[in-house]
Amino acid sequence: MGDIMSSNTSTLPDSQWYAIRTHVNQENRAEANLRAWNIEIFYPKIKEQRRNQFSGALTSLTKPFFSRYLFARFNAERVLHKVWFTRGVQSVISFGGNPSPVDDEIIEFLRTRVDTNGFVQLGDDFNPGDKVMMKGGVFENLVGIFEHEMNDSERVMIMLETINYQSHIIIERSSIRKIAN
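Below the sequence we write its predicted structure tokens.
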């Protein structure tokens, strides 16, 4: 029993990824407690931007990418009972009474979408020169050229070209979508 606590369970033979369902709003607690067992965890998160309806100020919220779920890599034969009874964990996703492994490729795909700040990136990645279309507001359906992100990374600079006029605008990143060249 002591050897499981002292060794890294993610490197044990037959370690696999499993989806862990947590109790409501207990993702962080489950993550910390599973890490205390030296279990490798992948807990994808997103940053959600909300605008204050009164002041118009943007605020950032960190939320789970999969509400009430995280992923853990362990040898089920050796530590499933510990995982199951870890504070914050509701269950290990199972079928037919056996824990159901998650393919390594799925975890790796999700990890490729995680940025340097640890957040899963949703939507388009924009590169200078990409053709974009405005999704709403007064500029809806106007086409422009993506130039660069601003320092806050929530706003971007777009170059608009219309008949005999060229202008730069700074708009929220969420207000544009990439279109084919």
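The mean pLDDT is 81.
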